[in-house]
Amino acid sequence: MTIDMKKPLTLLAVLLTLAGCGAGGKKNAETVQPRKSVVVYYSQTGGTEKVAKEFARQLGLDTLIKVELANPYDGTYDETIARCQKEMEGGEVSPLKAPGVDVAAYDTVFLGYPIWFGTYALPIKSLLKEVNLDGKVVVPFCTFGSGGRQSAEADLKAALPNSTVLPSYGVRAARVDKAPAEITKYLIANGMLKGEVETLPDFSAQRKVTAEDAALFEAACGDYQMPLGTPDTVGERETPDGTEYMFKTKSAGPDGKESVFTIYVIRGKEEGAKPEFTEVVR
Ligand SMILES: Cc1cc2nc3c(=O)[nH]c(=O)nc-3n(C[C@H](O)[C@H](O)[C@H](O)COP(=O)(O)O)c2cc1C
Questions:
Q1: Chain-centre distance of CA 40, in angstroms?
Q2: Where residue 188 falls among pLDDT bands split at 50, 70, 90?
């Protein structure tokens, strides 16, 4: 949790809420989540819905609200891209399907979305326009093809200056089967589930990649359909599950300028474990 000392009252409220001191609602025996919590999510192809259901299951929440638009994005991928681009250029925000989304009774909203164009999907923009989240704790989670978790989180914080937006959880669509274990760790680390998680060490200093590092990068990222650049340097750290790598890659952008991406890869401890690309930060 980011502690903003300029907002002591908000912080106190969050700590009390996270400790389960709020009034009303339901509480699962093993969880310490805020008492009046709801999961609100948008999902077009089902990935974020799986993650939303997993959050609800682990927290013992029975209320999930799916965000729906009056005019849903139900076309093909290319049609969705084309419609989004037109709406973004025109500054249009598509209205929610009536009767909208009512979260007045909840003080904490677990908010799930796919990443679209490096930020939260447009239907969440519709939600934020129509639904007042002031004073609430917002716990963001997302799924993505390659990344966008951090930029979406920053955009959400900017769009919700009167809410307390916690650090987000995110998973690549290709690894959504890994979400249950990761969500448990996320909830424990953020004080919403009882248990212990190890504090991870810092990554080692970045060093030039060797042929072996480049092969590991290729094994993890080679089948991703979009360019991720050429690995240049790498740092690593040991985690309870294996080794995590932080690669810096270089690529020439469309304007000829060099872009540097940060790409995270994990390799499990099991013999012959295939390295997995977990997230890119552009
Ligand atoms: C219109 C659109 C834009 C997308 N933009 C991005 C993007 O900028 N970065 C990314 O990593 N994935 C992007 N994706 C992939 C989705 O984030 C990913 O498939 C996600 O898991 C879909 O979630 P869902 O199954 O809940 O709809 C985009 C998908 C769509 C349809």
A1: 14
A2: very high
DSSP E strands in the chain: the ranges are 37-41, 64-66, 108-116, 119-120, 137-144, 164-165, 169-172, 207-208, 230-239, 242-252, 258-268, 276-281
Position 27 scores a pLDDT of: 40
Q: Using a 6 Å CB cutoff, which residues line ligand 1?
A: 43-49, 77, 80-81, 84, 114-118, 143-148, 173
Domain count, the chain: 2
Ligand 1 atom at shortest distance from the alpha carbon of 48: 26
Residue 127 has pLDDT above 80, yes or no: yes
My answer on whether 169 and 223 are in the same domain is no
d(CA 149, CA 200): 20
User: Which residue's CA is minimally distant from atom 15 of ligand 1?
Assistant: 145
**Ligand 1 atom showing the smallest separation from residue 81 Cα:** 1
Asked if residue 151 and residue 78 are part of one domain, the reply reads yes
pTM of the model: 0.88
Task: Based on the fold, state whether residues 162 and 217 are members of the same structural domain.
Answer: no
Domain membership flag for residue 258: yes
Residue with CA nearest ligand 1 atom 3: 116
Percent with pLDDT over 70 in the chain:
88
Is it the case that residue 18 has pLDDT exceeding 50? no
Domain that holds residue 226: 207-281
